[in-house]
Design goal:
Helix content is 86%, strand content 0%. The protein has 51 residues and is an all-alpha fold.
Length: 51
């Protein structure tokens, strides 16, 4: 399920980039800043899923 959501998000980001709604450079800067929060969210989702 997470893989499916990931593919949808990647597709949406690439589409938005092609429509010039934002630049992929902005995305790189955003990911560079927030990657620890993404890891925490994945870990929390894994803990919740086990219950």
């Amino acid at each position: 399920m997470i893989g499916s959501i990931g593919l949808i998000l990647i597709g949406a980001l690439l589409l938005a980039s092609n429509l010039e709604l934002f630049s992929l450079r902005d995305l790189g800067q955003l990911l560079g800043t927030w990657w620890p929060a993404v890891l925490i969210a994945i870990g929390a989702a894994g803990l919740i899923k086990r219950k």
